[in-house]
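User: Teach me something about this protein's shape.
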Amino acid sequence: MKAITDAMVRLLIGAPLHSDGKLTIVSLAVEAGLRRNKLTHKHTRLKDLFYALIKARGSSPEPVSEAAQARGRKQQEDLVRVRAERDALRSQAQLLARIVQVLEIENHRLKETNAALEQQLAARAGVPNLAGRRQPRP
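Assistant: First, the predicted structure itself:
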């Protein structure tokens, strides 16, 4: 229903994105991304509201100029491009998050291995490891 009302507003102000800009049910359906019979059979109140708004308006809007249509097409192309970039960045961010996670695991394992090696070296040298026996000073 929101798609229909948004499409109504775009048509009534003369800024269609998906249709030819005419104030007809067919153009409204195209603008809303629906089949025409959804408006004529299911959403009859919205259809009636659309006709009432057109009648109350008095005059129909000027046809959409070629420049406005070209601007709309360019905006749609830009939107597709930006969404593709967003998706690529999202997948890169997920990949980087996985890399960081693997590096953290490897770092933890290296620290454990390093601690075990230090204990082995200390045991061989006969030097006690005093780091674990320290008591806090009062």
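Now, about its shape. The first helix runs from residue 2 to 13. The chain has two domains: 2-57, 66-125. If you'd like, I can walk through any region in more detail.
User: That's plenty for now, thanks!
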